[in-house]
Amino acid sequence: MSRTVPLAVAPGVTHWPGYLDAGEQAALVAELREVARQAPFFTPRMPKTGRPFSVRMTNCGALGWVSDEGGYRYQPNHPETGSPWPAMPSRLLQAWEELAGYPLPPQACLINFYEPTAKMGLHQDRDEEDFAAPVLSLSLGDTAVFRIGGTVRGGKTVSLKLASGDALAFGGEARLAYHGIDRILAGSSSLLPQAGRINLTLRRVTKPRV
After folding, report:
1. What is the mean pLDDT of the chain?
2. Alpha-helical runs (H) found in the chain
């Protein structure tokens, strides 16, 4: 089980500061380099405008999230190479088992790389079929200022800093909460060879088959 004490941020939102220790963070970064070798980072685009995101991304697991003129969706292959996504590192599956409180394993891990100037506007994670499963996020590298609100845009929000090694989950009444990244605190971590942050987002996509 997790070695850190979970902190309740809001109903349905839990923060585990320092969930991954320094050795685990370094080992995971090494595994992610291999993931990126097999499935290179790409720049997604907004479906309606074609405007590029400020983050680069890739995926691992059975399914991966992509965005282009065809819309937001999950698919089993890389949008540029056509190859299947690499397998999810075992430490990510362990994190899900320890923290998610959901009986089935994650199907997708979205890997976002934030340059020091990158942001992510408030949005909902709603491209999945299975909203009963939580969303689990792990942070590596520079600290991010994360913001989360309710299920209606424009409501009250709560901000917190997510440092390297932190875990955060939101589910239940917060599963469709609006959330985003306001800014990256460049230079706050020495884990990565360059300034920036990697965010790993683990999700279930399909509903359990009965």
Report:
1. 96
2. 22-38, 90-99
